[in-house]
Specification:
Layout lengths: L1 H11 L12 E4 L2 E6 L2 E6 L17 H19 L3 H17 L4 H14 L3 H5 L3 H30 L3 E2 L10 H15 L12 E2 L1
Parallel strand pairs: 4-5
Antiparallel strand pairs: 1-2, 2-3
Length: about 200
């Protein structure tokens, strides 16, 4: 069954390369998996052949893209790390990576704190507990499923030309104020519009 599934993957995705082997642990791409007495253990895997503490190369507004990358790295740590200790170590590694690449302590601290504030998990950062961390991971996976469903609905609206996208590139400062003011002005200006009112059009 497993071999047929892997053969199907190779046939459909010829650019994906992997080797089949048996053992108590395995690493593939950026994840390390291990069978610890019947319990699945996982964490982020760092390839020893790749230089550590480096940021991905980006084109355009590097500060904005690296802000997204920092959040994505923290989310990846939550998904991959089954242990709170491994998550904490990965978080510290992420922070050191940004500091080593010239970003200020304020930049790193504000983004990391925003991550914990957004998911209401400040207690995990300062009072690490495996039970609370497990609850947080379960909530995140449920949220991820909801996010996928939400994205599919937005795509359906976009396909019907019912979604308008605006980009605001001033990534540091009163961006949240801009977003709120924009929504308020949009709602007031198009409150009676047959297609652009808030009831008929989604403003992101």
């Amino acid at each position: 069954m497993l071999h047929s599934c892997l053969h199907s993957i190779r046939t459909q995705h010829p650019t994906v390369h992997f080797q089949v082997s048996m053992g108590s642990n395995v690493h593939y791409l950026n994840v390390y998996l291990e069978n610890q007495q019947g319990q699945l253990y996982s964490r982020v895997y760092h390839d020893p052949t790749i230089q550590r503490y480096t940021l991905p190369y980006v084109v355009g507004h590097s500060k904005l893209q690296h802000s997204y990358s920092l959040r994505s790295a923290l989310l990846r740590a939550v998904c991959y790390c089954s242990s709170i200790e491994d998550f904490q170590q990965e978080r510290i590694y992420i922070e050191l990576t940004y500091l080593a690449n010239g970003y200020s302590f304020f930049f790193v601290e504000s983004h990391v704190q925003h991550f914990f504030d957004y998911y209401e998990t400040q207690y995990i950062r300062y009072c690490p507990d495996q039970t609370n961390y497990h609850i947080f991971r379960r909530r995140w996976f449920e949220f991820f499923g909801f996010q996928q469903e939400h994205s599919e609905k937005l795509q359906e609206l976009d396909d019907k030309n019912k979604v308008i996208h605006f980009n605001y590139f001033y990534d540091y400062g009163p961006r949240c104020e801009f977003n709120q003011d924009f929504r308020d002005q949009w709602s007031k200006s198009f409150v009676h519009h047959p297609t652009l009112s808030s009831d008929n059009r989604k403003v992101l």
